[in-house]
Design goal:
Elements (H helix, E strand, L loop, with lengths): L1 E2 L3 E2 L4 E5 L7 E9 L14 E6 L4 E5 L2 E5 L4 E4 L5 E4 L6 E9 L10 H7 L7 E2 L3 H17 L7 H18 L14 H16 L6 H7 L4 H12 L3 H19 L4 H4 L8 H12 L3 H8 L10
Helix pairs in contact: 2-3, 4-6
Length: 302
């Protein structure tokens, strides 16, 4: 099925090349999502992700900040960046999720791959283009859609080649991005999301309700009430979850001893960290690492 003459789509259709722990990995997931399964808190991946909504009026949260997205926008998420999508009530929304890994450097190509991937590290990595450019971009993804069922010995290489062409086109036209965030927030919602953004930027530091209230010139009781009302979390739980998500990234991606991962993420007491981790994740940090750590993690910090 061709949506709005742009993107080929099939419900519950997927394309996979390799596994998520491999150096080169692709997973194209064509599916639907609805408001009743919206994520409670933001999550992260150890790979890159593109989210392409195929319905209007979804909201994508990146590091605690909401961005309105509409059909055929491209949301780029770098590894270990906290994010979630909030879908509107009503009919389920079609969407395409592309998860991928590729080496940032390849022998003989200096840093071209690194430059391609750096486009997702922009302050707002959401891309919206005019209809003509959209056609050129999505033609590359349509080629992949049509390549996938073929039993060709070069299938995976051709998928990789087409996706690199897609990334090159995105990179070369990044300055033609016409996206602007249309989320309409009240003054208090803006302040609450500014507080959330501050937490994501300063989670390794000392944080508390009183400190945040002073920083944003709000009374602690008013901030506590409004923050819970807007985000669904208490300020304390939001701080803890943000820290825990970053600890999870260290557990998965590095060999840093468990006794040393908590302090860089804002926990001053190891016993408190253990208790908070178990509360939010439902298992010990050591068991989580055993179940999720990549087979070839880095040995240093993220």
């Amino acid at each position: 099925m061709l949506l709005q003459n742009l993107l080929l789509y099939g419900d519950k259709y997927y394309i996979r090349v390799n596994e998520e722990n491999d150096t080169v990995f692709y997973f194209f997931d064509y599916d639907v999502r609805s408001a009743d399964i919206n994520m409670v808190f933001q999550h992260f991946h150890t790979f890159f992700e593109l989210c392409i909504p195929l319905c209007p009026n979804a909201v994508h949260f990146i590091e605690g900040i909401p961005y309105e997205v509409t059909a055929f926008d491209i949301v780029g998420i770098s590894p270990n960046k906290l994010h979630k999508t909030q879908y509107p009530p009503g009919r389920p929304c079609k969407r395409l999720i592309i998860q991928f890994n590729m080496p940032p450097q390849t022998a003989g190509l200096s840093n071209e791959y690194e430059q391609l991937l750096a486009v997702f590290d922009r302050p707002v990595p959401i891309f919206r283009f005019d209809p003509e450019l959209q056609k050129h971009l999505y033609r590359k993804l349509n080629d992949i859609y049509q390549l996938a069922p073929k039993k060709d010995p070069m299938r995976d290489l051709m998928i990789h080649q087409k996706f690199v062409e897609f990334l090159i086109l995105l990179y070369l036209n990044a300055d033609n991005n016409i996206y602007s965030n249309a989320v309409e927030l009240t003054d208090m919602e803006k302040k609450v999301y500014a507080v959330a953004g501050y937490i994501h930027a300063h989670y390794p530091e000392e944080l508390s309700l009183d400190l945040l209230a002073r920083e944003f010139c709000i009374s602690p009781s008013y901030l506590s009430h409004r923050f819970k009302q807007v985000t669904g979390f208490s300020v304390t739980d939001y701080i803890q979850m943000t820290r825990i998500r970053n600890v999870q990234a260290l557990l998965v991606n590095t060999r840093i001893p468990i006794t040393e991962v908590s302090a860089p993420c804002g926990f001053n007491c190891f016993s408190q960290f253990n208790r908070v981790f178990r509360k939010h994740i439902g298992m010990s940090p050591s068991l989580y690492r055993k179940q999720h750590q990549l087979p070839h993690p880095d040995t240093g910090n993220l």
